[in-house]
Amino acid sequence: MASVSDIAKIIEEWAPPSTAQSYDNVGLQVGRAERSVSRVIVALDLTPGVVDEAIRKDADLIITHHPLLFRPLKSLTGGDFVSGLALRLAEAGIALYAAHTNLDAARDGVSFALASALDLRGVEFLTTLEDSLCKLVTFVPESHELLVREAIAAAGGGRIGNYDSCAFGTKGIGYFRAGEGAQPAVGAADGTVQSVEEVRVEAEVPTWRVAQTIAALRSAHPYEEVAYDIYPQNRRYSGAGLGAVGDLPGPMAVPDFLTHVAAALKADVLRFSGPDEARISRVAVCGGAGADLMDSARRAGAQAYVTSDVSYHRFFEVSDEHGTADLLLVDAGHYETEAGTEQLLVDRLRQSLPEIEFHPTTVRTSPVRTFTRS
User: Fold this and answer.
1) Which residues pair with 36 in a beta bridge?
2) Quick one: CA dihedral 353, 359, 364, 365, positive or negative?
């Protein structure tokens, strides 16, 4: 039977915790990693209703997008929303795991699910992560070059776009003198400087995979002391990012597009600003709070940008100094733009662990209600 840590490993291969924002708190929040799991509830948020459902359905684990434990607790005594729910989970023996901004940054993650809900085609990241690539360089005898390259690739190195196992090799001569007690894999420990024909192997590695790639390198390399260098790359990594952008099957007038968004996301209310007469064909999206990506939406050639938590003053930014709007900015609601995350996680985990029951919650977890004047 799979454990909490087995499930976490699958999620974290897809959405590495190191891609989460620095303020975030992702991963296992309540419970033991070794706990066996047979039934899982997946929810956008942890609420009393979700805990009730998990207890009623005898679930072992709840996976949420939004972390319950976002800030440090001073006590775990109940009496308030966060500590009370954490205490209920602990008492019921139910583990809690959160995949938040790391899932936002994952390919086929939160914003890709939003793009799919809006029927966008040719979807790509709206913006990729900065400072997220390194170049790993190592030196290996020719006899082990293939083994080392395969180990680097298996650990996640050498991936460029739709290609994997990418590396470059240059032949050269390595020199060393083995000290007392050394047992060199090649050459002799006779006090003289030895020379070995080696290959300089280099490959790109995402920053969050550096540690595991070095571990794989050490395991595959024949030397006692493995020489390697890590260089930062001044390029963006296409395997992780924020937001998404794609094209509608056909152009839509603004009223038709707004109707499409509201229906697709089951949104009772849309807040928007922008042109009245535009034709919408290219759409940028960001699940959750994404107003900071407005300029990225423009650069991507989008006529509309769908996100949430847009402030009053942000809505002015769709227009120039003459009042001419070049972007339709739509706030569809935080819950509404991320609700697809529940089924996204369920589908992904069912594929990897079909023996475990994964269920999206039946509880609408949004705390927000709307009042419409009649």
Assistant:
1) 3
2) negative
Rounded Cα–Cα distance for residues 235 and 238 (Å): 9
Entry pTM? 0.82
Whole-Å CA distances, 285 to 113, 266, 282: 10, 16, 10
Among 341, 294, 365, 327, which residue's Cα sits nearest to residue 112?
341
In a shared domain, residues 87 and 151: no
Task: Give SS3 for 235.
Answer: coil
370 within a domain of the structure (yes/no): no
In this predicted model, what pLDDT tens digit does every residue of 119-175 receive, in sequence order?
999 999 999 887 678 899 999 999 999 999 999 999 989 988 778 999 999 999 999
Query: Is 236:199 a contact under the CB 8 Å cutoff?
Result: no
* Dihedral of alpha carbons 42, 125, 9, 91, sign: negative
Flag whether 154 is in a domain. Answer: yes
Gap between the Cα atoms of 356 and 361, Å rounded: 15
Domain of residue 301, residue span:
110-128+240-332
Please answer whether residues 177 and 192 qualify as being in contact, where contact means their C-beta atoms are separated by less than 8 angstroms.
Answer: yes
In a domain, 24, yes or no: yes
Identify whether 365 is part of a domain. Answer: no
Our count of domains for the chain comes to 3
